[in-house]
Amino acid sequence: MEEEKTVVEWKKWIEPVLQSKVEEFHMMGYEKARKEEIWNCLIHKVWKGKPNKRLYEIVQDIFHLSVGTYMAYLTVQAYQNDDLLASIEALRYNYPENESEEKAEMYD
Questions:
Q1: Which of 34, 54, 69, 108 has the fewest CB atoms within 10 Å distance of its CB?
Q2: Does residue 25 sit in helix, strand or coil?
Q3: pLDDT attached to residue 98
């Protein structure tokens, strides 16, 4: 019987498989595909967490990861990051210190 571990525990064993998936995406025209992004996509979209799996199951999941799933993940991440950056900017410009600086400039 093959050993089951969390997907994170198997990560060092599957680096060549991740690299193969990166190269596959590059050959398909997705030059910006990176191992870490593919790994995060698998954790968030395919496995929905860090479940226990056998090594062959993880390898199979990586090889079956489609460009569509990967791009959908990246799109959601981009929207979430944009929202975060917009929120940070809104807080930064609405912070009381900036308001007092703006008032001081008005009187200069």
A1: 108
A2: helix
A3: 47
